[in-house]
C-alpha cells in the first residue's frame, strides 16, 4: 500500500511539474474593423465581417478555423464560421474575414428595436472562437458602439 501511495504522489508531482511548464499566455484581442456585403440567397443577407486579431504574447498563435456570433442592440443578429488557417505572429496582428448570415427574422427584430429606441447609437457585441490545437483555442468577446449620423436617420419615431 505504501508503494502505491508513493507511486501516486510521484505521478501527481510529474503532472503538476508538466503543467507548470506550459506557457502562460494572455488572451488574443479581437476587434471589429469592417463589414462588407456579400451576395445572399432568398431572404438571407450575407456579410463579410473583418476582425483584427492582436496577439500580445511571446509566441505565435496558429489558428485553424473561426466561429463568430454578432449581436446588435442586445439581440442576436448574425453568425458564421470559416475554415481559414494561418498564424498570428508574436506581438503581431492579422485581419481575419468571416462570412456571416443574417436571417430575415433577425432583420425584422432589429428594425422594430431600431424604430422604438435610441436611433443614433447602436451597441454591438461580437463573440466566438479562434480554433487551434486543444490547448491553444482562443475564445473572445468584444463590445462597442456605432454612432450613426442623425442626418441619415430622419425624424425620430413617435
Corresponding CATH superfamily = Immunoglobulins
The helix/strand class is alpha+beta
CATH C-level class is: Mainly Beta
SSE arrangement, N to C: HEEEEEHEE
Average pLDDT over all residues: 80
CATH topology-level name:
Immunoglobulin-like
CATH architecture: Sandwich
Structure in words:
With 158 residues, this protein is α+β, with helices and mostly antiparallel strands. The protein has a single domain, classed as Immunoglobulin-like (Sandwich), CATH 2.60.40. Helix content is 20%, strand content 49%. The strands form two sheets. It has a four-stranded antiparallel beta sheet. It starts with a helix and ends in an 11-residue tail after the last strand. Mean pLDDT is 80; it is low at 18-22.
Q: Keywords for this structure?
A:
alpha+beta; single chain; Immunoglobulin-like; 158 residues; 49% strand
Helix and strand layout, with pairings?
Elements: H1 2-20, E1 29-38, E2 45-55, E3 61-72, E4 75-88, E5 92-102, H2 104-116, E6 121-130, E7 138-147
Antiparallel strand pairs: 1-2, 2-5, 3-4, 3-6, 6-7
Q: What is the structure about, briefly put?
A:
By secondary structure, this protein is an alpha+beta fold. Helix content is 20%, strand content 49%.
